[in-house]
Design brief:
The protein has 230 residues and is α/β, with parallel strands linked by helices. Helices cover 37% and strands 20% of the residues.
């Protein structure tokens, strides 16, 4: 299976979500993936410290009240690595917000929050650190992640939400073989049922719509790979 924590040839935007409440963590992870980001989750501060040592992350979303090592302690550990951090926490006192920002956090979001606000703040921080492109030009297409528009030769190509998510997944992973199970997990969530043709049927339609009949190739016993220069 594809390991999100290992940075491949394509420079993907990877986000680490450090949140001990699993329902909140799952919601954030699902929303980030649908927005085109790859992310891992840690449920305590000690595990998160190990993960930032083992893998390359472009952003950390960090709760303050964590088991093992709290968020402020973990922030001190992360700071020398120069990874931008956004605190996400129920601690809403002015003193806590000031403390987090003075420690070097890029932003401080208080629970409960709207996912659309979180995504907007993530995008701002990533742009500040030049971790995300304004547009993606690949294999004859121009993709604007902000407006979710896909253009070829000046003409917009209408895509369904799932087709767009598939397209963005391959555009961010050129020349990388992606397992069907990984594709399904990223786009639909959950596990791919044995014998399901959902991924194959959507990819067939996507190929025709965007003109990737040659570029988007099947990989025997694995899944699919986009063969293109980013």
């Amino acid at each position: 299976m594809y390991n999100e924590g290992t940075r491949g040839a394509a420079e993907l935007v990877r986000i680490l979500v450090v949140e001990d409440e699993k329902p909140i963590s799952d919601l954030i992870r699902m929303s980030l993936r649908k927005a085109g980001y790859f992310c891992d989750c840690a449920y305590d501060g000690a595990r998160a410290a190990d993960m930032v040592n083992e893998s390359a992350y472009d952003l950390v979303l960090l709760d303050v009240m964590l088991p093992e090592v709290d968020g402020f302690e973990l922030m001190e550990y992360i700071k020398p690595m120069e990874i931008p951090v956004i605190f996400i926490t129920a601690k809403n006192s002015v003193s806590d917000r000031v403390k987090g920002l003075r420690m070097g956090a890029e932003d401080y979001i208080v629970k409960p929050f709207e996912i659309i606000e979180l995504l907007a703040r993530v995008e701002v921080v990533l742009r500040r650190y030049k971790k995300t492109d304004e547009t993606i030009a690949i294999a004859g297409l121009v993709i604007d992640p902000r407006s979710m528009k896909v253009m070829r030769g000046g003409d917009e190509i209408p895509l369904t939400p799932k087709e767009y998510e598939l397209l963005l997944l391959f555009a961010r992973n050129p020349n990388t073989a992606l397992y069907r199970e990984t594709i399904y997990e990223r786009v639909w969530g959950g596990e791919l049922e044995y014998g399901s043709k959902t991924v194959d049927l959507h990819i067939q339609r996507l190929r025709k719509k965007v003109g990737w009949e040659k570029e988007l190739r099947a990989v025997n016993k694995v899944g699919y790979r986009l063969e293109a220069e980013p």
